[in-house]
Write a structure and sequence with these properties.
2 helices, nine-stranded antiparallel β-sheet, single chain, alpha+beta, globular
Length: about 140
Amino acid sequence: MTKSISKLKIGGKDVIIIELRKHGIDSIMLDGEVSVGEYDGVDFVKKDASEEKMKIAKDYSSKMKELLSSCACIISIVYSDMLYVKFYYNSTDVIAFISQNGYTTYNKQIPIDKSIEDKIKDCAMRFLDILGVKL
């Protein structure tokens, strides 16, 4: 089941969308406050959530905000059959494809600094750790 975190603009507003699909929570939106709902890739539809689910959502939100603040170049991380990490590098959007054996390829034929490559992998692995998922 796909899980992701993305920095987006929705309605002209900067937001973070977390596709959790865990604990009965489909998605979480952070736009100054924490909302639980469904995200279809275009629209986020807010749903009512129990106090317990909101507590879980706030906990994940806090951890994900901390992750993104320490991984400022990351635009999004998607986990499905492998990890897909979109990030800014030298004014360019680049996507890293990280396979289950840790091998990384990129969608652009540009040299990626080793320290940046290590940082991208570290951020992606921390994302999986927060979710309790193994690559």
